[in-house]
Amino acid sequence: MKKLTLLFALFAAVKIQAQQKYQLYDLSVINPKQWIIPKNDTLDYELGSFDGKNALLIKRKIQNYKSASLAYKPGLNFKDGIIEMDVACTIPKGGFVGLAFHIKDAHHYETVYFRPGSSGTINAIQYMPEKKTEFNWWDYEATKYQAKAVIPQNKWFHVKVVVQGSKMEVYVDNAAKPAMIYTALDPSLKSGAVGYWHGNCPQGAYKNLVVKAFN
User: Fold this and answer.
1) For residue 37, which of 4, 49, 59, 184 sits 20 to 30 Å off, Cα-Cα?
2) What are the transmembrane regions (predicted)?
3) pTM of the predicted structure, to 2 decimals
4) Confidence bin at 186 (pLDDT 50/70/90)
């Protein structure tokens, strides 16, 4: 009887998930007039290509371990849902590239970023809420904020992030199982825009950002 009850519960959960409605936001086409994209003395960007694929290229002219910049289209009020994108760190030695969600402004958001240079180690993926002017990643170096994964270097890889309530799952390269599960998302950052995140990396390539916001 217990097994039968469990089967019914699992079936109901799968059915509810399948029926969950969402609003699709295709952000794969970037119009610089509609996006907020960083450009200053130390940072530049171009709509170019990497490995034969059209992409947004963000270039950091001066390396700084406290660097963190966003490129996003304002106006989206994403709370829960699915975020997918393709990203690459275009140098062999790696750098920090990723995505941001629940963006309020340049210094208030949640981020999941990837370190190709630390592929295969616990430092490959890191989550953190950013709420300071200075990007303070060192405050989130505890194991619970990080996860092990194989991250390609100097090559495109696909990322899917599922956000629901306080829980987040991170999938890399269409894997069936999440590389990271985090269950304590910051309660003060409940909703906001979604975009690309560029850390301390000479050049990152970003494309195919699509958001499914749960209704």
Assistant:
1) 184
2) none
3) 0.90
4) very high
